[in-house]
């Protein structure tokens, strides 16, 4: 099977950060056709007219079929070769992955297959691990690192502090982890304007940063974190993407996140201030500096109070 047939009504799973159910009134139509490596035509998505934007349906492809275009291009982006394809298929099977699910709002530079996300290091899609839907990060062939094993080690260390999606497996080119259904923080803030709820979520974000500081793990990208925090449907925040993390440098997670959320000129900081009110930025900066010096629980609570109360 290359593409699932569209049915109406149907469930359309979107990205880790956005999911919705098409209703019986959804207008579903085939969006386009493409050729695979053998020249056969296959359909590449549907258009759904709803109160949300247009989305493509989920397509589940078994590992045995991933060597075909366009999936091979995603598997070995941007330079698929037969040897690399077969090597990566062997890795997936060794990890226990039986299929990948192509769905989401992102595309891989014109490839007619939706994915959850893409970056300079990898592409994220949904996978099936012993029947469970998980997330898998696929290392790009042209990535600036030789493997994903360091990121896996950092993710496992974050898990030891009850932070981040749970690591489920890793190899040279794949990182398998818990699938989080929610919205990235900026999107979540756009749809949640209740002060106490937002304060509670942000406190839990800072508490996770504190736990990372306590175990000596620096995330490395929380000073610009719009895509590194996901809020799930149960209002639990998750810090994600540990590819730049290190346990060899001095951690600064609370300071980085506190400044990003409450004192920066970012759109997220403006959204936060709109909901919880303007804060005394000088007091926040001072409290974060005091925390950075001592890293005690008392200094952390003082910093949280300056930020949120």
What does this 3D model show about the protein?
It is elongated, with a radius of gyration of 21 Å. The strands form 6 sheets. Strands 7, 8, 11, 12, 13, 14 and 15 form a 7-stranded antiparallel sheet that branches. It starts with 10 loop residues before the first strand and ends with a helix. A hairpin with a 4-residue loop joins strand 17 and strand 18. It is of the alpha+beta class. The protein folds into 2 domains: 168 residues, no CATH class; 127 residues, Transferase(Phosphotransferase), domain 1 (Orthogonal Bundle), CATH 1.10.510. 33% of the residues lie in helices and 22% in strands. Helix 6 runs antiparallel to helix 8. It contains 9 helices and 18 strands.
